[in-house]
Amino acid sequence: MSIRIQNDGIAGAAASQVSQTGGAAHSASAGAGAGRGIGGADQVDISSLSGAVANSVAAMASRQADRVSQLAALYAKGQYKVDAVQISRALISEVISTGPVESDS
Questions:
Q1: Domain count, the chain
Q2: Arithmetic mean of pLDDT, 20-45
Q3: Is pLDDT larger for residue 66 or for residue 42?
């Protein structure tokens, strides 16, 4: 994983850049104007982390879509059976964990 933090907003200072790769930190000064963001704004680059998160989200969405397809096929065949005890326990657990419901009246 690579993290780069760049701060060009400090008056009179050259652009500074700090990188961290594999737990080892490195600090380097860049020349004036090098790697500057729009209007000298701070920038954070977390591309490898965001890529890993995106891959995880895509994999989870794919597994969820597969499960929904399986359930739809069972339902279409008339083989989907609802476990009333399991559903009632889940509903009661949800109510207990979220607390009382307040009314607007």
A1: 2
A2: 52
A3: 66
